[in-house]
Design a protein that fits this description.
- The protein has 227 residues and is of the alpha/beta class.
- It has two domains: 125 residues, Rossmann fold (3-Layer(aba) Sandwich), CATH 3.40.50.2300; 90 residues, Orthogonal Bundle (Arc Repressor Mutant, subunit A), CATH 1.10.10.10.
- The protein is built from eight helices and ten strands.
- The strands form three sheets. A five-stranded parallel beta sheet has the order 2-1-3-4-5, sandwiched between helices. A three-stranded antiparallel beta sheet has the order 6-7-8, covered by helices on one side.
- Strand 3, helix 3 and strand 4 form a beta-alpha-beta unit.
- Helix 1 crosses helix 5, helix 6 packs across helix 8 and helix 7 packs across helix 8.
Length: 227
């Protein structure tokens, strides 16, 4: 993998720690950028679309968990959460939200670089999981979907749902599990909301290819992406 094309956003309010970490990333060929407060992160991500975030949970003006929740409303960029708090509940909260990894300070910059390389390698492999027969292409970074090289316009919730299925082919998920992954802002939704999203996704895919029925219903259990 050519890491020179990869940009790591380090969101960290300790200048010396952020600088050292970026030096290690640079030695491995990565491009880096540092943000030291929580208010600038979302706009910067939308404008520059980094390949991965190192996100400190304890930031001035806005905490990392709030940033992460908003981030997941429009992007699936990998996130490694970092904190000086080592309480188990904090770690579980971060991972249950869907963070790709979790590191506790003080950490080894060399180890962080290795973890990031592994995450990006897995993400690259997941993005290549394209069913040749359906020619379904999902770009998580740009949040675009195409089928047989024709664009398929989905709502943000529909995209997150289809992208989640694409990363877990042949795995069956209940409606409750899908709601947890699609709606991470604790809003109240019903089981039928997932049914409605899947119905819309099927309709939009079939408008491009009439025989496209990739999301299968598993009676009494939930849904899966069949490849």
């Amino acid at each position: 993998m050519n890491y020179q094309e990869k940009t790591i956003l380090v969101v960290e309010d300790e200048p010396s720690l952020a600088t050292v970490l970026c030096e290690y990333f640079s030695q491995s060929g990565f491009q880096t950028h540092i943000i030291d407060n929580g208010l600038e992160v979302i706009d910067w991500v939308k404008l520059h679309q980094p390949d991965l975030l190192i996100l400190d949970l304890m930031l001035p003006q806005r905490n990392g968990l709030d940033i992460y929740r908003e981030l997941r409303t429009f992007s699936q960029v990998p996130v490694v959460m970092a904190t000086a708090r080592i309480d188990e509940i904090d770690r579980l909260v971060g991972l249950e939200l869907g963070a790709d990894d979790y590191i506790c300070k003080p950490y080894s910059p060399r180890e962080v670089v290795v973890r990031v390389k592994n995450i990006l390698r897995r993400a690259s492999e997941e993005n290549k999981m394209i069913d040749i027969n359906r020619a379904l292409c999902i770009d998580d970074k740009k949040m675009t979907v195409s089928l047989n090289e024709q664009a398929v316009v989905l709502t943000p919730a529909e995209f997150r749902l289809l992208s989640f299925f694409n990363k877990h082919p042949e795995q069956v998920f209940s409606r409750e599990q899908l709601m947890t992954h699609i709606y991470q802002d604790s809003r109240v939704v019903t089981d039928r909301t997932i049914d409605s999203h899947i119905k819309n996704i099927r309709r939009k895919l079939q408008a491009v290819s009439a025989d496209s029925e990739c999301i299968k219903s598993i009676y009494g259990v939930g849904y899966k992406l069949e490849i």
